[in-house]
């Protein structure tokens, strides 16, 4: 191949890297159940898909808008319990229930977000943490509706007519399909004007405001969007497992979600996918270390943040870029 | 009626004093490094654990045991700062905060390995015969908590306003770059702030574990309440931390007494959110 032709091919690949990546990933995900049919493994990857949806929304809020939320497990919980209560006690069919719940959670996020997003930094962290705490306590104590500490069971699976998403393989396509849709939506959002405005907001709020970004509105909008993502993921979670309990939605879940964002890379959509995958699988891997589990879990987190503070994806991409630039300089000098 | 109220106020002040101690620890670290130090949560558990070992494994009497536990936690806190946070060369506060979350997981793992998962009991400082104060019966431990909290705050004031290292720390809290320009050693200031935070957390742990029980994760909820107290008062402000701690304690015990004990945390956090809506920087924040 002539050098010019090679450059053209490389340029084409570079230009279409996002589309190619999404295409490859979709193909890989379509074929995955053919190679791997162990229900346990598929169950794990399904959980990654659910977490990815929440983390994508949270990363838009933390990474792109530069805010902090330690309370996203609350929106996740509202989605899950909302679907559970409306379908079992309210007798609604699952799909409209899911939409209705997502709209309601969005409204709740709007009502909470308008006053709370005036706060910054540690105050915002505490306010969202407090919100999570309140929701978690209500789930535990209001046992006539939520089933209390023992949880809420008997949630029907999703489906159309006789076709039900009840096996791990079917759920794989449903959950990863939804996760990929959310991924595409996020990828497009961050390249739009709104997304660029958000990135400006994360960089410097005052500068963004002086350039005409309506910062207050932008923050509330992205907060509502991330809450809706979390609610959809919660509904999928409820229908996927048929059982929800308050344990899954405590403040530690919220912390884990933020850890996924930070480890994957704040402000990196692909990082959300990687962070969700890594942190979801981590407890499985460190099970080998039995008694030293917490030690290894915390250690990996600390080491990643210490040596790649921009997160895995951004950090590794930066390393590669620096390598390439150095090699180019060497060529130019020679 | 009046006696009930007095009883609630006493129990509120007791837990409020504990929250205030933990909140002060959060504030000290925030003033020098600008981050929320989530390891504070485990300093509380560690204080109780060291007190337990000092009393039963080393056979120390009460007062040396207390000093041993507090000094031990302060030493661990300095190790955490020197080897856990110092090597991280990032300015991003969110990353630093999540390093403290990771360190907290590690420290909790170590505590679990050393002392196990069982619930234990630490004896109170003096025998448990309730004292009658104006019709309310109060445990002697509660009085000790109030007294030692006041002493700790007095010592802290002495340190910050009467020693040169304290002056350095106030300078860093006021303006970190100006402090660096006049040659104040940042490393030593950070190390000291961690030692103080550890000592305060450890003291809170030693004092509170005879009332609650002692387990490896006893500090998590207490620590988060301490964080809430620090935010309520205005993060970084010492009078704010004390006010926030006592306020949160009273709010909890009064709502547990008059509204519902199941929802006492909900009431406390809802009030916190409402306060933040009116005063976005806490009660005494700048």
Task: Name some characteristics of this structure.
heterodimer, A: 334 residues, mainly alpha, ABC transporter involved in vitamin B12 uptake, BtuC, two-stranded antiparallel ribbon, 15 helices, globular, B: 286 residues, 11 helices, 2 strands, amino-acid transport (chain B), transmembrane (chain B), ABC_transp_permease (chain B)
How would a crystallographer describe the biggest sheet of chain A? 2 strands, antiparallel
CATH topology of chain A: ABC transporter involved in vitamin B12 uptake, BtuC
Q: pLDDT average of chain A, as an integer? A: 88
Secondary-structure-based class of chain A equals mainly alpha
Helicity range of chain B: over 70%
Query: How far from one another are the termini of chain B?
Result: 39 Å
Q: How many strands, what sense, and barrel or not for the largest sheet of chain B?
A: 2 strands, antiparallel
Nearest-angstrom radius of gyration of chain A? Answer: 21 Å
Per CATH, the class of chain A reads Mainly Alpha
Q: Tell me the distance between the termini of chain A.
A: 24 Å
Major beta sheet, strand line-up of chain B? 1-2
Low-confidence stretches of chain B: none
With helices defined by DSSP (H or I, 4 residues minimum), what is the helix count of chain B? 11
Task: Tell me the fraction of residues in β-strands of chain B, as a range.
Answer: under 5%
Transmembrane segments (chain B): 6-29, 41-60, 66-85, 94-115, 142-161, 194-215, 227-251, 263-282
InterPro entries (chain B): ABC_transp_permease, BCAA_transport_permease
Membrane topology (chain B): Multi-pass membrane protein
Organism (chain B): Desulfofustis glycolicus DSM 9705
């Amino acid at each position: 191949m002539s050098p010019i032709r090679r450059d053209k091919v490389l340029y084409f690949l570079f230009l279409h890297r996002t589309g190619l990546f999404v295409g490859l990933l979709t193909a890989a995900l379509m074929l995955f159940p053919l190679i791997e049919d162990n229900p346990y493994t598929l169950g794990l990857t399904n959980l990654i898909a659910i977490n990815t949806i929440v983390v994508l929304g949270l990363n838009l809020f933390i990474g792109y808008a530069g805010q902090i939320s330690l309370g996203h497990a609350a929106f996740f919980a509202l989605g899950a319990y909302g679907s559970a209560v409306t379908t079992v006690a309210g007798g609604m069919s699952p799909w409209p229930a899911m939409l209705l719940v997502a709209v309601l959670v969005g409204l709740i996020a709007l009502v909470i977000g308008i006053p709370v997003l005036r706060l910054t930094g540690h105050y915002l962290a505490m306010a969202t943490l407090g919100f999570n705490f309140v929701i978690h306590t209500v789930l535990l104590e209001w046992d006539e509706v939520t089933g209390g500490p023992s949880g809420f069971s008997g949630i029907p699976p999703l489906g159309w007519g006789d076709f039900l998403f009840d096996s791990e393989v079917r759920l794989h396509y449903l959950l990863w399909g939804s996760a990929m849709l959310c991924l595409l939506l996020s990828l497009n959002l961050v390249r739009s004007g709104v997304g660029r405005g958000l990135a400006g907001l994360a960089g410097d709020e005052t500068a963004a405001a002086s350039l005409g970004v309506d910062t207050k509105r932008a923050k509330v909008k992205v907060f509502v969007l991330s809450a809706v993502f979390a609610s959809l993921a919660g509904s999928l979670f409820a229908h996927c497992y048929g059982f929800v309990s308050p344990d899954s939605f405590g403040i530690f879940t919220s912390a884990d979600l933020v850890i996924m964002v930070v480890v994957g890379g704040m402000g990196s959509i692909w990082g959300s996918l990687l962070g969700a995958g890594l942190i979801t699988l981590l407890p499985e891997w460190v099970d080998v270390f039995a008694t030293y589990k917490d030690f290894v879990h915390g250690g990996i987190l600390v080491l990643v943040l210490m040596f790649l503070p921009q997160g895995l994806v951004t950090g590794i991409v930066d390393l590669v870029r620096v390598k390439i630039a150095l090699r180019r300089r060497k060529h130019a000098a020679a | 009626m009046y006696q009930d109220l007095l009883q609630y106020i006493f129990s509120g002040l007791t837990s409020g004093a504990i929250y205030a101690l933990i909140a002060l620890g959060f504030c000290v670290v925030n003033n020098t490094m600008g981050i929320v130090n989530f390891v504070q949560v485990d300093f509380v558990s560690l204080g109780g654990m060291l007190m337990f070992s000092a009393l039963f494994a080393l056979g120390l009497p009460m007062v040396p045991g207390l000093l041993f536990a507090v000094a031990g936690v302060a030493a661990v806190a300095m190790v955490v700062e020197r080897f856990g946070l110092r090597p991280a060369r990032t300015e991003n506060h969110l990353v630093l905060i999540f390093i403290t979350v990771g360190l907290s997981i590690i420290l909790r793992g170590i505590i679990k390995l050393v002392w196990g998962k069982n619930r234990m009991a630490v004896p109170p400082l003096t025998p448990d015969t309730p004292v009658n104060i104006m019709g309310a019966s109060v445990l002697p431990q509660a009085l000790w908590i109030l007294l030692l909290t006041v002493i700790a705050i007095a010592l802290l004031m002495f340190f910050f306003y009467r020693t040169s290292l304290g002056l350095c720390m106030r300078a860093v809290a006021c303006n970190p770059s100006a402090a660096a320009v006049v040659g104040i050693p940042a490393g030593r200031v950070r190390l000291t702030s961690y030692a103080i935070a550890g000592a305060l957390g450890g003291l809170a742990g030693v004092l509170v574990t005879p009332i609650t029980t002692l387990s490896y994760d006893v500090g998590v909820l207490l620590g988060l309440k301490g964080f809430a107290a620090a935010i309520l008062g205005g993060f970084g402000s010492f009078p704010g931390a004390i006010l926030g701690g006592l306020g949160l304690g009273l709010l909890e015990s009064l709502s547990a007494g008059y509204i519902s004990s199941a929802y006492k945390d909900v009431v406390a956090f809802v009030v916190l959110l409402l306060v933040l809506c009116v005063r976005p920087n806490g009660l005494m924040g700048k």
